[in-house]
Specification:
- The protein is an alpha+beta fold.
- The protein has a domain of 99 residues: Ribosomal protein S3 C-terminal domain, CATH 3.30.1140.
- 25% of the residues lie in helices and 21% in strands.
- A hairpin with a 3-residue loop joins strand 4 and strand 5.
- Helix 3 packs antiparallel against helix 4.
- It is elongated.
- It starts with a helix and ends with a strand.
Length: 187
């Protein structure tokens, strides 16, 4: 009739009935009686249909007796910076460099561009020696004073506990300079 694999795959199982008397009369969709000698019923999973057998909880799978505390591991790598980005030290370093290089500066297109590159490189070199686990970003801007406005803004998403920035500006008779240094901690 049906193979055993087909019976396992189907959602209903087929069981033969031994006598005609025990077969209940069923009607199909058209109202006539079924003359089938097999009774169709829903498949059962487990031993729910067998009398005298009931499912029992298996305590060995629950593991109540062998409950262990969760293991806690300590981090083996450095989470916080040892020398944190100290704003006062960085600001004083920038002020010293501006006193040395920018006092008495006359704006000139060729000299000013060279000065910005020199200041940014020197700042980055000094700060990288002090803070080895920080990414240092130095932004140096020099502009000529011509009765005009200058607006500069920065926006970022960062870790406010470890990251910081310093912003300094200064003016002389013919030019202004703005130095922004960002220290971003590398995890």
């Amino acid at each position: 009739m049906h193979s055993e694999a087909e019976l396992k795959k189907s959602k209903t199982s087929v069981h033969p009935i031994k006598s005609q008397a025990s077969m209940k009369s069923t009607t199909d969709h058209f109202g006539s009686k079924s003359m089938s000698r097999v009774k169709v019923r829903r498949a059962s999973y487990g031993y729910g249909a067998v009398p005298g057998i009931r499912p029992v909880e298996r305590t060995s799978q629950l593991g109540i007796d062998f409950k262990r505390p969760p293991l806690m591991f300590l981090n083996t790598y450095q989470l916080d910076p040892k020398p944190s980005f100290h704003l006062a030290n960085v600001k004083s370093m920038i002020e010293e460099m501006l006193d040395e290089h920018f006092d008495g500066h006359k704006y000139n297109v060729q000299e000013s561009t060279g000065l910005t590159i020199r200041l940014a490189n020197e700042l980055m070199r000094k700060l990288k020696n002090l803070y080895n686990r920080y990414r240092i970003i130095a932004i140096v801007t020099i502009g000529q004073k011509r009765a005009q406005s200058y607006y500069n803004s920065i926006a970022f998403i960062w870790d406010y506990e470890r990251d910081a920035y310093v912003n300094t500006q200064r003016e002389v008779s013919s030019a202004f300079i703005q130095v922004t240094v960002l220290g971003i901690y590398l995890d």
